Amino acid sequence: MSRFHCLIPVLAALPLATAQAADWSDASIGYAYGTKFKDPGSAADVKKHVVTLQYVGGYKYGVNFFTLDMLKSDINNPASGGSLSTTSSRGAQEVYVVYNNTVSFSKLSGKPVTFGPVRDVGFQAGFDFNSKNDTFGAGLIKLIAGPKIEFDVPGLLTLGLFYYKENNNNAIAPAIGAGSGNVNFDAAPRLATVWNFGFNAGLPAVFKGWANYTGQKGKDGFGGDTKPETWLETSLLWDVGSAMGKPKTVYAGLGYQYIRNKFGNPSSLPGTRVSSPSVQFEVHF
Predict the structure, then answer these.
(1) Which CATH class is domain 25-284?
(2) Domain boundary assignment for the chain
């Protein structure tokens, strides 16, 4: 989020939702704030505010997931001033959208598809979309699809192996005569997991998150080789609403983001390794 997935996404996992549920839904609005985020090309720490609208719901054959992240950076990640040599006096803004649909083979067949530690098998397909107004001018579209298994554990734990295909914009490369602004990356494999576990820690709490490992995706917009990317987003949130007699409505706690080779950039480029804690709040409806 820068891909936020750059932030504390929030892709993932909503309290107590599993692919085995019948008809259910959960909608929420969240807020995250951290001071140690980074963006490729600069070693500076970036403060970011992130507002997230999220929906997850079960239907006859599986699960729909949608999230919209709205990110606001401080001046260490400035908005474009209209050219490579100028920047705005305000921080960049970004919108990042994720949608995916998982078809449950158990629901599709009408009988459990289980084996060993696996309680369901499915197929997930979806897309990411973003737009950011910094000098780079990202305009991302990703297509992601592949099989996914859900483990038989208390809570939610999934593992998927996906086809990943990305197209993006690069406003810098054509401005310096280094390549095209339209960057059509090679297809790459992605290994992805999502988890959500409830427990008691003084108050009811959830430990949730997601992690992706994306392989090399060919050449970047400057003609250099991309690197495999590791991206982790996780949260520990307390159900503070339960103390007010409104369980599963208001959550507060801490988040953490770790990224290696952000956006497939090599570690030699500043700002490609991120280790950022954050504070998080969520209200569920």
Answers:
(1) mainly beta
(2) 25-284
